[in-house]
TrEMBL record:
Signal peptide span: none
Stretches assigned to the Isochorismatase-like domain: 11-181
Protein name: Hydrolase
CDD domains recorded: cysteine_hydrolases
Organism: Dictyobacter kobayashii
Keyword Iron-sulfur: no
Pfam families: Isochorismatase (PF00857)
A GO term, aspect molecular function: hydrolase activity
Length: 197
């Protein structure tokens, strides 16, 4: 379902646009994803709406096929380089931005994100569409937020996984939109607010 309205209390959540993750292969040009997310961040900041910048520094402790395979082959996860978790410079983090560091796929689990927001609607961008973004969207939906997924500002290592999330999962969690549409609606809602004052 396309974006219909912007609430009075909204936040942008940018998931895992960090230097280490952005070196991985992607289904869409990563520079475009970063550029669009940065455009959205500037637009949200201009309206004094919260911008939440999320990075990941670990993984959940549970056993998975991937972790089991690493143990049986003797390959352990390499220690990430020092700047691996640093956010993409283009996001231009600001002092008022909320920073969330997570160790799981979703940005709500075991973090302060839900307590910090104080909003009714969240807009999501980032990587990977089918992992960090989708997990965060599912949790946002379960917390009762109006969820908007900005599909041209996200990507995945797997094009089919991205497409599945966008076409099959996201319509069940919220509304979908593009960067251009969101920015246009932000401007429109700002003009309406100005006329009311």
């Amino acid at each position: 379902m396309p974006l219909t309205t912007i609430d009075n209390k909204v936040a942008l959540i940018v998931v895992d646009l960090q230097k280490g993750v952005l070196t991985l292969p992607a289904a869409h040009p990563v520079d475009q994803i970063i550029t669009r997310s940065a455009e959205l961040a500037r637009a949200f900041r201009a309206r004094t709406f919260p911008v939440v910048l999320v990075n990941v520094i670990g993984s959940a402790p549970g056993r998975t096929d991937a972790s089991q395979s690493a143990r049986t082959t003797g390959h352990s996860r390499p220690t990430p380089p020092p700047q691996w978790a640093d956010l993409a410079d283009e996001l231009d983090p600001q002092p008022d931005d909320h920073r969330i560091t997570k160790k799981t796929w979703g940005a709500f689990h075991n973090t302060s994100l839900h307590k910090e927001l104080g909003v009714t609607q969240v807009f999501l961008t980032g990587v990977a569409t089918s992992i960090g973004v989708e997990s965060t969207a599912r949790s946002a939906y379960e917390h009762g937020y109006h969820v908007v997924l900005v599909t041209d500002a996200m990507t995945d290592v797997d094009a089919q996984a991205h497409q599945h999330s966008v076409e099959r999962i996201f319509p069940r969690l919220g509304e979908t939109s593009t960067t251009e549409e969101v920015i246009a609606l932000l401007k429109e809602s700002a003009e309406v607010s100005e006329k009311k004052e």
